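Working notes for the structural subgroup meeting. M.R. asked for a predicted model of this chain before we commit to crystallization trials. I am recording the input and output together here so anyone reviewing the notebook later can reproduce the run.

Input as submitted:
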Amino acid sequence: MGNRRYTQKQIKWMSENVNNYKNYKEMANAFNKKFNENRTDQAMSNTLVKRLKIKKSFNSGQFSETLKK
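Returned structure, recorded in token form:
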């Protein structure tokens, strides 16, 4: 498990876009595409909530498959 840092540009993007996605998985996919990275949804969640103290206002996506039934 790595301890890769985010650039200031990446942190700014994350804080500005946190509420533009349905869940962290969608956000991680968009982030990875934009910055040519390979970050996980858990990495997005940890960085936003624990490091930046930004709470999400969307479903984490954990139970999304169950809700579709």
